[in-house]
């Protein structure tokens, strides 16, 4: 898998792709949109986020209510992990305004745990699946060192386990 996203505007980069890949991107984002619609319905939310292609990282944007998925991820990621990652972003959507005001490291991490729990509920993902998603995403986000990634995954996993135990 290639790690470096091209530093050109998305439209230009997409236009440079062979037609078959452009078609596949459109198919993939349509599929993501249908997942997002289903997830929003299960969460009991009326206005499902719009799915968009980005050349940057995967994110949920509360103001515009957009779930943006990196083009490379749409083309290359394992379908099951992609679906779990999208469910996680819908977890942020589920707490749209709360997540917007989570600024400190601690509250941001707590938001991540909440979003992971929603992803588990929506997709049946296991803790191992969620680790795999974080590792897959790190491939699209250049700033992770492998030590930082390992310790982040470990911290997040232990908090998630704690939250799951308390919920039982
Ligand atoms: Zn998140």
Write up what this structure looks like.
The protein has 8 helices and 3 strands; from the N terminus they run ααβββαααααα. It is mainly alpha-helical. It has a single domain, classed as Metalloproteases ("zincins"), catalytic domain (Zincin-like, 2-Layer Sandwich). It has a 3-stranded mixed β-sheet with strand order 1-3-2. The longest helix is centred in the first third of the chain and has 24 residues. It is globular. The N and C termini lie far apart (about 40 Å). Bound molecules: zinc ion. Zinc ion binds next to helix 4 and helix 6. The site of zinc ion has 4 residues, from helix 4 and helix 6.
The number of helical runs is 8
Round the Cα radius of gyration to an integer and report it: 16 Å
* CATH topology call: Zincin-like
Q: So, CATH architecture?
A: 2-Layer Sandwich
Strand content: 5-15%
Secondary-structure-based class equals mainly alpha
Overall number of strands: 3
Low-confidence segments: none
Instruction: Tell me the name of the CATH class.
Output: Alpha Beta
What is the total number of structural domains? 1
